[in-house]
Amino acid sequence: MNRKIRYLILGLGFLFFLIVAPVIVMYVRGITYDFNKKTFISTGIFAIRTDPQDAKIFIDKKISRKKSGDIKFLIPGEYAINIQKDGYFPWNKRLNIEPGQVTWVTPYGGKTYLLKQASEKKNLAQKVSAFYYANGLVFYLSGQQAKILDIGSPQDAKEFSLPKITDAIIASDNNGQFILSASASPATLLLLNTTTGKITDLARLFNGKPKFQFANDGRLLALDDTTLYKIDPQNETRTVLLNNIKAFDEFNDNLYYIQIESKNELSLQVSQKGSLGQALITNLPDFANGEIIVTPGKQILLLADGSLYQANKQMEKITDGINGYNYNKKTADLILLRGSELDSYDYYSQNLNLITRSGIIPAKFILAKSVGYAFFANSQGLFAIELDTRSNQNQYQLAENKNVQNFAVDETGENLFFLDNENLSILPIR
Predict the structure, then answer these.
(1) Which of 398, 393, 368, 357 minimizes the C-alpha distance to 380?
(2) Which of 91, 116, 163, 376 is most buried, by the most CB atoms less than 10 A from its CB?
(3) What whole-number distance in Å separates Cα of residue 371 and Cα of residue 391?
(4) What band does 34 get if pLDDT is binned at 50, 70 and 90?
(5) Which of 329, 294, 289 is nearest to 307 (CA)?
(6) What is the pLDDT of residues 200-224, one digit of tens each?
(7) What's the gap between Cα 301 and its chain centre?
(8) 98 burial level (CB within 10 Å; 0-12, 13-18, 19+)
(9) What percent helix, strand, coil does the chain show, rounded to 5?
(10) Beta bridge partners of residue 186, listed in sequence order
């Protein structure tokens, strides 16, 4: 090879580098040529993580992927996203791509959970008056019987004969202890320990129905009128802990309570086991009915007479007009019903987030942030609605049962349990 050919090859190689290198740089940086605008533009990315993973993903009605992943080099603008999988409800939304940005199809980098369509429910029990779900166990009442079954092995259900008919479960420690009552008999108040089989008649200790709570260490607390007691089920006795109490909550061995001080002023206090109370906030607004909620981050909320307050330097009112709420102590999810509007509450930012509003008021509702949905039951059936309110908000009817007395969703959002016309059923939804 002579010198001229070598120089020619080197020159062509250098020319090729000058042409290709910028193309490679633009490719890496997501820059492409827009033939409509006749200019180079920075593209964006849709990040899509679905569950199940093998769902088909369509962008503007054209299939882009057959499983979870990123869709790159999208020209800025609005796109219609459709996610489909046989046997599941379709998921639809319109989202914008911004230049040089990654847009998560589900906010905060989470997964898009698809819910099963036309899933077959399985009957667990009949003639059921009440049920409670926690940690893979379903506990339910039927006449003068109580039963507890493990969803993983329902054939091994344990049965307990009760001395009285009960139809309500008013408290549980989520570890096998339940307090039961009867709507027709104020004198019925039973504590059932499903581990030992022991039944304690708490009606011997109280004339009415106190507010019960199991502490983290297993202690049973009860607020009767304005007196807070510690209950000893073994000896069937009660001990006064505090007087002049309007509301309380126990969290991580700390007892939070609102106490009536002199001149009928209210103060929020906290005490550890065996220690004197420490005032956190004084001059609280008076109320007739209220409940304290202490979150895992030790935010203190007060739901009182239809209003929500949060403790900061003082008790600040967040909203009012509340006619129902549901707080999951395990997940710390709080959902509020205000009129016919469902809202979730973020106690870190102190923001109310609208979920949905409807002419049909939900009878029961649950917030499940871990899967991105709220679930509610009304006179039309059981529904799931997406929490992401950007663009179209996906809503699905999971069951047509129109007389749902109660329902629960398991920890992973895979199964829904519901009681309808005394029939207890399980419905797979993921």
Answers:
(1) 398
(2) 376
(3) 19
(4) low
(5) 289
(6) 999 999 988 899 999 888 889 999 9
(7) 17
(8) middle
(9) 10, 55, 35
(10) none
User: Which residues have C-beta within 8 Å of that of residue 198, sequence separation ≥ 6?
Assistant: 192, 233
Structure-block tokens of residue 250: 């126990």
User: Would you state the structure tokens that stand for residue 193, as one six-digit string?
Assistant: 């320990």
- Cis previous bond, 210, omega within 30: no
The answer to whether the Cα torsion of 266, 267, 271, 276 is positive or negative is negative
Q: Cα–Cα distance between 231 and 225 in angstroms, integer?
A: 15
- How many Å separate Cα 164 from the centre of its chain? 34
Rg for the chain, CA atoms, rounded: 29
Strand pairing category for 381-386 and 395-399: antiparallel
CATH code at 327-430: 2.120.10.30
Sequence letter at residue 341:
E
Banded pLDDT at 377 (limits 50, 70, 90): very high
Q: How many CB atoms lie within 10 A of CB 211?
A: 14
CATH number of 43-113: 2.60.40.1120
Q: Whose structure tokens read 């987030």?
A: 353
DSSP classification of residue 277: -
Q: Residue 117 in contact with residue 103, Cβ under 8 Å?
A: no
The whole-number pLDDT of residue 5 equals 65
Instruction: Give the C-alpha distances (Å, rounded to integers) separating 200 from 31, 183, 212, 223.
Output: 72, 18, 14, 18
The answer to which of 106-110, 158-162, 382-386, 397-401 has the lowest mean pLDDT is 106-110
Task: Reduce the DSSP state of residue 411 to 3 states and report it.
Answer: coil
Give strand ranges (E) for 329-403: 333-338, 341-346, 351-357, 364-368, 373-378, 381-386, 395-399
- Residue extents of the structural domains in the chain: 43-113, 327-430
Amino acid at 423: N
Instruction: Mean pLDDT check: name the lowest of 70-74, 285-289, 302-306.
Output: 70-74
Give me the half-sphere count of Cα atoms (radius 13 Å) on the Cβ side of residue 105. 28
| 32 close to 75: Cβ distance less than 8 angstroms | yes
Residue with tokens 């304005």: 226
